[in-house]
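Feature request disguised as a bug: please show the residue count (239) next to Glycosyl transferase in the output. Example input:
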Amino acid sequence: MELDPTVRKELIEKISETISPAAQRHRAMRVYVWEATVRLSYRLKRLLDITVSVAATILLMPVFLITAAAIWIENPGPVLFAQTRVGRNGRHFRFFKFRSMVVNADCMKDQLAAMNESAAGVIFKMKKDPRITKVGRIIRKLSIDELPQLLNVLKGDMSLVGPRPPLPREVAEYTLEERKRLHVMPGITCLWQVSGRSDIPFNEQVLLDMQYIQSSSITNDIALLLRTVPAVLTGRGAY
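Example output, currently without the count:
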C-alpha cells in the first residue's frame, strides 16, 4: 500500500533528525562530489566532440567535395540527405548523411518492406538494396556517408560516440528496455559499429549500447574512436 505524501514526508523528516550533523555534511559532500564529477565528464566529452569534429571537418574537406561531386554526377539531386531521427530523451532532430540512394528512395521503401533482412524487424537492412547507387555502395563501405554527421555533433544534436540515433517509427516499436538507449546522446560510432555493424542483430545491438552506457567514460570514448578507424577500413558489416 502506498503511503500518503504527507505521512511519507513526516517519516523522512523523523529519519533525518536521527542522522548526526557530521553524517549529514558527509552525505551532502558525497552528493556534491558526484554531481561535480558528472558535470565535468559531460564537459570533457563535449570538448572532445568539438575539437575532433572541427579538426576532422578541416582535414576531410577534400573528401567532402569529391564525394558531393560524385553523388551529383551519377544521380543529379541533393548531395545531402536529411532525415528526422530521435536523440537524447526522445528529442527529434535533423540528421545528415551524404545521399547514397536514388532521389526517390523513401518512396520505394514500402515496396521493399517484405525483403527486410533484419531478424528483429525493428530496423530495415538489405544487403543488395536496389535503391543504393554505385557511389553510394562505395561511400557506405567506407562510412564516408556518415561524415556530414560531424555537423550534428557541432550543433550538439549528437556526440562522436554513443548509440546510433533511430528513426521515430523504429522507436515506436521499442520495448521499455530498448528505450533506455535514448537516455544518452546518440553518436556517430558506437560499440556495435566497431564489432560487426549491420551484421549484428538488433537485440545484440541494444545489449552493446547498454554496455556502453553503463561503462561510459572519456577514455572509453577515445578507445572506441581509435577502434573505429580499422573497422571503417575493413568495411565489415557495412551495407
